[in-house]
DUF2069 domain-containing protein (Shewanella holmiensis), 126 residues
Amino acid sequence: MTTYSLFQLCRTGYIALVLLLTGWFIQQGLEGTYSLAFNLIWILPLLMPLKGVIQGNPYTYAWASFILCLYLLHGLTLVYVTEDALVFAVIESVLISALLVGFPFYARKRGRELGLGLKKKSEKTN
């Protein structure tokens, strides 16, 4: 798989996740389960890496996986505790799991193309 196609898949999946969760949390706010303001706060961490994900910055793809873990916990908790929103919870969990595989893979592959990486410690000669 080329880096560009992996980038397109990850970016599309991320945007789909943002739209899915935005719709979910707005619906929950409108139904009155919690206030709309509280539910909109749930979306903020997901929006933090938006610019870097759209631009294809490998560093952003590397650290965005940590944020996705929060939402994976949300999805897996919903799978366990709900019957009404089971389909939504499964879709959310599968989409996030795919992104948790794709994001680091893209970051590594694109980082190597750009020559990015950790510098090796030089050996000192005494």
The helical segments are 3-31, 36-41, 44-47, 50-55, 58-81, 86-114. The longest helix spans residues 3-31.
